[in-house]
C-alpha cells in the first residue's frame, strides 16, 4: 500500500492511540521479541476490554500496522458512521457479527485471505469479553482457522488490567497500569483438543507473569 494511503492510520496511532496506551495506561510489555513480524500468523489474546485490539496493535512499530488485521465485534466497532469509518479505515478490522446477521463463512474467507496475503490476524479465542481479568473457556474456531492456511502459527498473548481501564459497559478510560506478555508461537498439529489445551495453558502461564495481576493478588 502506498505511504500516503497508510499515513492516516500511522498518524492515528502515533498521535492518539500510542499516547493513551503507553502514557495514560503505562503499558508494561514483556517478551515483545516473540511477536511474529510476518504472516501468516495469528495473535491469540485473552479479552477483557475494547481497548485490547488497540493495545495489541500498539505492540508493533508504526511501519508494521498495515500487516495487522484485528477480527472485532461489528456490533461495537460498526455501531455508527464515525466508528465504522474509524474501524474500517484506520484500524482495519475484519468485522465479526456476533448476532449472526453476517454469514460466518464470509468472515472465515476474509481471515483466510488475510493469512494468504501474509498478514497477522488478531483474535480473541474466548469469543467475547467475560468477567474482568478472568480467562474464559476458549473456542475452537482459532484452531480450524490456523489449520486452514499452511504455515500459520498462533502466538498467545496475555493482557491484564485493561478490564479495569475500560470495563465492559464503560465509556471513559480510567488510568490503570496494564500488562501485555507475549508467549512462544504454537503449532496447531493434528489434534484440536490438544492444541486448545496447550493454548489455554499458555495463556494461564502468561497471565501469571503479569505484574499488575501479581500486585493485585498480594493486596
TrEMBL record:
The chain crosses the membrane at residues 6-25. GO terms for molecular function: 1-acylglycerol-3-phosphate O-acyltransferase activity. The keyword Membrane applies. Pathway: Lipid metabolism. InterPro entries: Plipid/glycerol_acylTrfase. Residues 41-162 form the Phospholipid/glycerol acyltransferase domain. The keyword Transmembrane applies. Keywords: Acyltransferase, Membrane, Transferase, Transmembrane, Transmembrane helix. Coiled coil: none annotated. GO terms for biological process: phosphatidic acid biosynthetic process. PANTHER family: 1-ACYL-SN-GLYCEROL-3-PHOSPHATE ACYLTRANSFERASE. This is 1-acyl-sn-glycerol-3-phosphate acyltransferase.
